[in-house]
Amino acid sequence: MKVILAAVLMGGLLTACTNQEQNKKEENMTTLNLTQEWDKVFPLSEKVNHCKVTFETQYGLTLAADLYTPKDAKGKMAAIAVSGPFGATKEQSSGLYAMQMAERGFVALAFDPSYTGESSGEPRRTASPDINTEDFMAAVDFLSKQENVDAERIGIIGICGWGGIAFNAAAADTRIKATVVSTMYDMTRVSGNGYFDSEDKEESRHAAREALAKQRLADPMAMAGGVVDPLPDEAPQFVKEYYDYYKTERGYHARSGNSNDGWRVIGTQAYANARFLYYINEIRSAVLVMHGEKAHSRYFGEAAYHYMVDGKAEGYKFVGEPNPNPENKQLLIIPGASHCDLYDGGYTELVGKGEPKNMIPWDKLEKFFKTYLR
What we know:
Elements: E1 48-56, E2 62-70, E3 77-83, H1 93-103, E4 107-111, H2 129-144, E5 149-159, H3 161-172, E6 176-182, H4 187-193, H5 202-218, E7 223-224, H6 237-246, E8 263-264, E9 286-292, H7 298-310, E10 329-334, H8 341-344, H9 362-372
Parallel strand pairs: 3-4, 3-5, 5-6, 6-9, 9-10
Antiparallel strand pairs: 1-2, 2-4, 7-8
Helix pairs in contact: 2-3
């Protein structure tokens, strides 16, 4: 496997790092042209080292990532892989989470999923329950091979739609010892049922399937789903919150689908026909479900938590057995927080016009991972 070290010193912003894989070569791994300058929507912490790395998935795709390590790191450390929100890039929320975890003593990897951002895959901005779950497991592969990582102490964080994907990865991969899902969406549920299960009927799903089938022949490369711009006055509150994050200086990024023209219309077709949280009631490792009290998406996190623990929950048509290890499962509802407040902590208004709300409980995340990755 060939892993390219793409970061170089740029005015002190990027600190080069090394890993075991860099000097190995395989012809079948894609070489990515990675941006060298610091281009995140948040400033680089003085407490961490940062470099760009790449790694390969079992589907033959090459993923681009940012690797953060504590500057005072010694010996083998616990590690965390981070991705999300769905449609975002590592320059946005996932990078902030990774950097904050590195400040707290972890090796942390924020990666662009397949077909997204700087990662490989054509056509662009396409998604798959299988491929996206593999993205997380491939990140665990990468971290497990690093000289400064204890392979028995690896966790993951999934944000928004990648919260559901993190759940699925934790159910599939026993190497994942601790999982945080933050402000999560279940992409399979919302794709098949609509928001709040308002389209949970055969007629609605059939109509959607017919439309997507026609789209495949009419224009399979058509894009849709970016945050609406300009923002209508009558837009729902959660759409206004998305706009505040993705379309302003607070979180806009040129490579982010959510900040621009979205995803391929048919790019998430498989999600609507799947339910990938079926076995989360069998996750034995530790899980923290974190959601905002005022988030429109709160029902996803609460239902997933209750199904994971009890084997049944409102909105789940299937019933399973109670979890064999309920004692290490936690549900954290953050008072006053909206969905996007857990992307970056939130602001009272747009960046530059309000004050930070600091809604992400970083100390609680640190305590959770240090408890279960020890």
